[in-house]
Amino acid sequence: MNFTLDFKAGMGDSMENLEKQLICPICLEIFTKPVVILPCQHNLCRKCANDVYQASNSFWQNRSSTTVSTVGRFRCPSCRHEVILDRHGVYGLQRNLLVENIIDIYKSETNRPLLPKTEQQQLMCDQHEEEKINIYCLTCETPTCSMCKVFGAHKDCDVAPLTVIYKRQKTELSDAIAVLVAGNDRIQALISQMEDICRTVKENGRRQMQNISDKFDELFAIIEERKRELIETVGREQDRKLGHVRSLMRRHGDHLEMSIKLVETAIQSMEEPQMAVFLQRLHHSVLDRITDTAKASNIEQTEAGFESMDHFIINTENAADMLRGIDFQTAEDGEDSSDEAPEDLTNSPGQSGESGRL
């Protein structure tokens, strides 16, 4: 006997757990057939799915021209996964026959109306303990019983059947949920759009920074090439002057060496004791060579200021000012450049006309 009671209690708990799995997240009631399954594997009543779809589809149809007008979308209320529908709308979603069969089995096993437990457990009136709450006071906006309407605190109030108000407010809540879901879709769409804008801004910024870097690299290359050419020019002039001076130094050195040797020879001649030999040598060799050397002592010299290199000074102030003035083009600059381009091509073939700006 106890086993039978425990089994029935266990079955009751299992059915309650099963009922929780069969609750639609939109209407908060057990699924109403037909039941559709979303791509994210969550289920909805097709009517509830259509309500959400209709509430959010107007936003998607008013988006940019790149969106196809026959395509609708909404987000799953359980996981926020985006569901994209074709021209058939929610009627293009696959029916979940397994869930529908489970609902049929559940109905046959429980043999009770498929209403939430709050509806099955009738509340009793606090003032009239044996009376069930079955009406709704519109004036006080609270559920009450029939005795309160006839004899109690709500006898002068306007009332309506509890089921009517229940269905009305459930419909209002369902509509509000659909509007909220649609609003969430719009916010999510705006966030996605802003994320796309952020990615585009980053890409455009990276591209422009790379473009500026390339332009300045071109300027650096031009400056380096011009620096090399000017340095080579100075170097060639330096080598020419050094070569000339060194040539003169060699000639002066040769003349000096010859003069020293001649002086030594003359000193040796001065030491000759015999007058006849002295006169003969002086006349025929030493004296002639001294005379010739003296005549040749007036050799070439460098002119005044030969060592100066001041004529290679360059003025970079104008170029530096131009480099400091490099800035971004405005729309007017772009139009002026496009207007002047044909004239530049006519006057200077082969030039791009952009040497003065980035």
UniProtKB/TrEMBL annotation:
PANTHER family associated with the record: E3 UBIQUITIN-PROTEIN LIGASE TRIM36-RELATED (PTHR24099), TRIPARTITE MOTIF CONTAINING 55 (PTHR24099:SF17)
Residue ranges of the region described as Disordered: 328-358
UniProt source species: Culter alburnus
Residue ranges, compositional bias (Acidic residues): 330-343
Record-given protein name: Tripartite motif-containing protein 54
Keywords carried by this UniProt record: Coiled coil, Cytoplasm, Differentiation, Metal-binding, Microtubule, Muscle protein, Nucleus, Transferase, Zinc, Zinc-finger
One Gene Ontology term of the molecular function aspect: zinc ion binding
Limits of the RING-type domain: 24-80
B box-type domain ranges (all copies): 120-162
GO cellular component: cytoplasm; microtubule; nucleus
Location relative to the cell: Cytoplasm; Nucleus
Location of the COS domain: 270-329
Function: May bind and stabilize microtubules during myotubes formation.
Catalytic activity: S-ubiquitinyl-[E2 ubiquitin-conjugating enzyme]-L-cysteine + [acceptor protein]-L-lysine = [E2 ubiquitin-conjugating enzyme]-L-cysteine + N(6)-ubiquitinyl-[acceptor protein]-L-lysine
GO biological processes: cell differentiation; regulation of microtubule cytoskeleton organization
